[in-house]
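Worked problem 6 (solution included).
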Amino acid sequence: MRLPTLLLPLALPTLATSPLPLIIWHGLGDTYTAPGLHEVGQFAQKTHPGTYIHYIHLSDDSSRDRSSSFLGNITTQLTTVCAQLHSNKNLLSRDGKTLRVDALGFSQGGQLLRGLLQRCEGLSIRSLVTFGSQHNGITQFQACGAYDVLCKGAMALVGAQVWGPAAQGHVVPAQYFRPVDAKTGHPPREFFEYSNFLADVNNERESKDWRYKTAIAGLEQFVMFVFGEDELVVPKESGWFGEVNVTTGEVVSVREREVYKRDWLGLRVLDERGGLVFRTTPGRHMELTGEVIREVCERYFGGERAVGFREFL
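Solution. The predicted structure is:
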């Protein structure tokens, strides 16, 4: 991820507490050492001095960390990251057992952070901000670059067996693949039976895990950014838990879906108290400006409480 030169922070609110730690998870094909990712972290620190930043990674080696964004079992990865966070004393609360942080996820990293919140015991997130994520999955896989051997290798594992153990156990994007049948308007039976990640964390199976609802409802703010000209994520409205009617092409918003109406994830509870935020930012997938990052850092991160906090928009 690359960003233009970031702008200087505006005047800051008066904070009643020290800033919460910020955990950041990069997207597909990126790595935790990416300069753009660290620019974001540095800006958060300039905005709220004293902010501790943790860049989530699945290997200390940047090349292997990038590989893990394509290849791996998400269930195993979330377990690994949960242990990683709990082993970092800079993230632990005073009791030495619980984690209280803000979280920022880019693209794929957004839904992985949400899954982490739902599954990682002892993790409490105050503000969860995601950019261009796929919270309701994808209906088609992105095209690989001409020389992206890693991407092509991952897609070769998918082939015609997207619901098979090779894909669902080893190809990360396959685990949040969610096609919709044009006749029924619902995902196929195989999605509910074999999806290793998305069917579970979206509580779409008949058997619900109500701890997931508690985790999401416990957020103060869940801020979901969608890129206005995003052509990489299909459908882009997945970043808002929306889906597209494959017959009419009309967007079905999350508020019109059963996941919201029956509140399988706590989204409605969060929305009713003003904590579910839908945002659009101009540009194609992951085309971010310093101004947007500045606003996010100032508005959603920092100390637990603020006095005279400046409202935006």
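Discussion: Strands lie at 14-15, 22-25, 53-55, 99-106, 123-131, 221-227, 243-244, 251-252, 276-281, 306-307.
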